[in-house]
Amino acid sequence: MSFVSRIALPQRTCWAVAGEMRETLFWPCKSGKARAVMLLVPGNPGLIDFYIDFCTALHSLFSDSLDIIGVSHLGHTRFSDNRGLAVKRSSVPSLADQVANMVAVFDQIDADYRSAAQRPKMLLCGHSVGCYFSEKIVECRSDRVDRVFSLFPAVEDIAGTPRGRQLWPMFYPGVRQLAAGLVDMLVWLLPSAAILGLAGMSRSLSEDSARTVAEKMLHGPCINSILKMAADEMDEIGDLNEELYRRLGHKFVMYYGSNDGWVPTAHHKRMAATNTKGKVYMCQNGYPHSFVTTHSAEMALVVADMLREEMGCWEPVAVDTAPTIVGRPVATSGLID
Questions:
Q1: Are the beta carbons of 110 and 144 closer than 8 angstroms?
Q2: What residues are paired with 86 via a beta bridge?
Q3: Contact 297/325 with Cβ under 8 angstroms?
Q4: Backbone angles phi, psi at 312, to 5 degrees
Q5: pLDDT: is 314 or 263 the higher one?
Q6: For the purposes of burial, counting CB atoms within 10 Å of the CB of 113, is it exposed (0-12), middle (13-18) or buried (19 or more)?
Q7: Computed from CA positions of residues 76, 77, 78, 82, in that sequence, does the dihedral angle turn out positive or negative?
Q8: Which sign does the torsion angle of CA 84, 176, 171, 295 carry?
Q9: What does 276-324 look like in DSSP terms, one character per residue?
Q10: In which band, very low, low, confident or very high, does the pLDDT at 284 lie, cut at 50, 70 and 90?
């Protein structure tokens, strides 16, 4: 057994893209010759660590042929560079800044893989507002994106959704700074065990997710960046981009939740009527919008079904060999239109 084979996935690194340091997780295929490369674009908060279980489960089903690359959003997480030094930002990025740099991330990945003897398929997998990022990448790089998997896509009228109407007061500038300052004060005053307990008060977070929040997100500048991006989402993500989906809808495979406070079922109906070239599914298993904290393995099966159809070469995964949660097989994907 080689030393490289002993290194557990994902591999963690950071790299400079258009002047920004990007925290990155990488799941390389075993063969070293990927037939497909997937860029995972997170939602908000955009900590790529939230997606480790999901990407690990998905990668395990295609470990010989699929590379997965996931990046955190700018400013959303505390991390260190490859020398172990803390990466610090001097400004709070806007949504437009975030999108522009994510396009640059895609460009760099695409350029690196384009030199391969046989260019792999370039795939995007967006979650929540990450699907809006995916839209923007397709708009300007449509000839280089082969397929987009949009999970619980928050791509229209976020301010008008039930959750948007409930939470919008948190996103005002003064409130954002107050929240950031309060977090810094609590972290300074309280022991780490108490901070972890506060992070774990949300019943939707697993123990690992709560620890990720406590150690990587509960930091004033991170909170400010997260809330700033949310505020911009409220202001800037309005009407559905119907022109994009009528022109390039065939590139999209979309998966909506049946009870989603950020993406109401009316959004699914509108997308199904607009994007008649692509595939627009409604979940029949009740998976939540924030699936990464509770249903990672189940959603890995959903995306695995999408990937098998896309690649046209993998056999369906038997339930008894599918990813498991606490030793039990997960439910089948349940893709329906």
A1: yes
A2: 80
A3: yes
A4: 65, 30
A5: 263
A6: middle
A7: negative
A8: positive
A9: -SSEEEE-SS---TTGGGT-HHHHHHHHHHHHHHHHS-PPPPPGGGS-E
A10: very high
Please report the pLDDT score of residue 318 as a whole number. 41
Backbone angles phi, psi at 123, to 5 degrees: -120, 145
Distances (CA, A) of 337 to 17, 47, 271: 38, 30, 12
Please give the single-letter amino acid code of residue 171.
Answer: F
Helix (H) or strand (E) holding 267: helix 265-274
Average pLDDT, stretch 209-224?
88
Sheet holding 279-282, edge to edge: 11-17, 20-27, 66-71, 36-41, 121-127, 147-151, 252-256, 279-282
For 140, 143, 186, 188, 248, the CA distances from 220, given in Å and listed in that order, are 34, 40, 10, 11, 40
Q: What is the dihedral of CA 188, 205, 200, 212, to 10 degrees?
A: -30
Partners of 70 in the β-ladder? 25, 40
The whole-number pLDDT of residue 140 equals: 95
Round the average pLDDT of the chain to a whole number and report it: 88
pLDDT over 70, % of the chain: 89
Q: Work out the burial of residue 124: count CB atoms within 10 Å of its CB; fewer than 13 is exposed, 13-18 middle, 19 or more buried.
A: buried
C-beta of residue 36 within 8 angstroms of C-beta of residue 124: no
**Which residue did the predictor score with more confidence, 281 or 89?**
281
In the chain, DSSP assigns E strands to 11-17, 20-27, 36-41, 66-71, 121-127, 147-151, 252-256, 279-282, 324-325, 328-329
Q: Quote the pLDDT of residue 313.
A: 55
Do residues 135 and 104 make contact, with C-beta atoms less than 8 angstroms apart? Answer: no
What pLDDT is recorded for position 129? 98
pLDDT at residue 104, as a whole number: 98
